[in-house]
Write a structure and sequence with these properties.
427 residues, 6-stranded mixed sheet, Beta-prop_PDH
Length: 427
């Protein structure tokens, strides 16, 4: 064989070997509880062994950043991506070892600033994706301490990258103080980062995007219209005129907040809590306690009086665009890139006899930027990823929390109860 041919053959062999090594499949990680996937969807565990992973985000180089709630901080995960579901963790390290950080995380659109939160503070870190390092933190926002609903969801607008949204929940199941907008609880507020100097600002300095929101843990921006949407965890142990209706009421909510310019009629709107919540199962009410409720209709918690009436709830507060079954606990919501649907992570119930939630679902949207189904629909939620047996929940289930899209349109999901990260295709 001529020498040049031998060299070419050797080069071809080496190239083939390198290609084969690079194309080796990731090791299979068996899920703690194998999910049931809807037709057209597939999933695989990318990473496990985490301690209560909550929200997550991709950096500009395709690495994962995960907020771990259980005394960890912020974890950086470098991925090996062989395409499709064949993805695994190449390396993993905690880059912010702060045990007070418990949930919120987002990146500036250019990927250079990492935003994180504890129950009392919001910080910004300079971030280097190539080196997997952070710089010195800037303290942005201070939040009064509270015992209940301690997570602070963070969302940076892609359309207005100087604007940071921070969600804060109530300090009790029913928190009477949140009837005062100045309480700063049960709200989503807007912070202009260009106006925050060297000292942190109090949470109540932010502009109110929405209030009367018991605990809106998931907040997202429509990538086409720029409008803001949230998912709300509504009240537990609800009764109406001494009739217990809590097994199937009130509804969890998908709420619309308009754009961030302030021009929307729902900008700064009151969504009703703690006086008003939303019906999911009208049949649980008697004709004397609530004679005209339908799915998605606001009603008064407890007992009505001359001033606190269902009519007040229905005319003076903003109802949800879509309602979901009671106590299913939506903890994140993310739009597809074309805004044709949102995906919602339902963490699952504790406040009903028959467990519900514990799933990933989809709600389809029109090209006008609103759900296809009407606000009184009980069928807008399309279940995508479910547990095999909800009666085994919560101990025998995966429990969805955070959602993030990668650059290839694959959806990643955390399960805090099982310490896993899933990748999902077909979404």
């Amino acid at each position: 064989m001529p020498r040049i041919t031998q060299a070419a053959a050797l080069l071809s062999t080496v190239s083939l070997a390198i290609t084969q090594i690079a194309a080796q499949s990731c090791p299979t990680i068996d899920p703690a509880h194998a999910p049931v996937m809807a037709t057209g969807y597939e999933s695989r565990v990318v990473l496990n062994g985490l301690k209560s992973p909550r929200h997550l985000v991709f950096d500009t180089l395709g690495n994962l950043l995960i907020a771990e709630q259980d005394q960890v901080g912020i974890r950086y995960v470098k991925l090996t991506d062989n395409g499709g579901l064949d993805i695994c963790a190449e390396s993993s390290e905690v880059i912010i070892p702060d045990t007070t950080l418990n949930h919120g995380i987002d990146l500036s659109p250019d990927g250079s600033i990492l935003y994180v939160s504890s129950k009392t503070d919001v910080y910004a870190y300079p971030y280097d994706a190539a080196r997997a390092t952070v710089g010195t933190a800037k303290h942005l926002i201070t939040i009064p301490d509270q015992e209940d609903h301690v997570t602070r969801t963070l969302t940076i607008s892609r359309r207005y990258p100087e604007l940071l949204l921070v969600s804060r929940g109530s300090n009790a199941n029913i928190d009477p103080g949140t009837t005062d907008i100045e309480s700063g609880r049960s709200q989503i507020r807007i912070f202009n980062l260009t106006e925050i100097g060297d000292e942190p600002v109090p949470y109540t300095d932010g502009e109110v995007l929405g209030w009367g929101l018991r605990n809106s843990v998931g907040v997202t921006e429509n990538p086409v219209t720029g409008d803001i949407w949230s998912v709300e965890n509504s009240a537990d142990e609800v009764a109406r005129d001494n009739v217990d209706v809590h097994q199937t009421n009130p509804a969890e909510e998908l709420n619309y907040h308009g754009n961030l310019t302030g021009a929307s009629p729902v900008h700064g709107a009151n969504f009703g809590y703690p006086l008003c919540v939303t019906a999911w199962d009208p049949s649980a009410f008697t004709t004397t306690t609530a004679p005209s409720l339908t799915v998605g209709t606001p009603f008064v918690i407890g007992t009505t009086n001359d001033t606190v009436t269902d009519e007040m709830c229905q005319t003076e507060t903003t109802p949800p665009k879509i309602s979901f079954p009671a106590h299913t606990a939506p903890l994140d919501v993310k739009f597809k890139a074309d805004a044709s649907a949102v995906y919602i992570a339902f963490h699952g119930s504790w406040n009903r006899d028959s467990p519900d939630g514990y799933r990933l679902s989809r709600v389809n949207f029109t090209t006008d930027g609103f759900p296809i189904e009407p606000s009184d629909s009980s069928t807008a939620e399309i279940r995508v990823m479910t547990n095999q047996n909800n009666t085994a929940c919560p101990d025998g289930c995966f429990r969805p929390v955070g959602l993030a899209w990668d650059s290839k349109g694959r959806l990643f999901l955390t399960s805090d109860a099982t310490g896993e990260v899933f990748v999902i295709t077909g979404a």
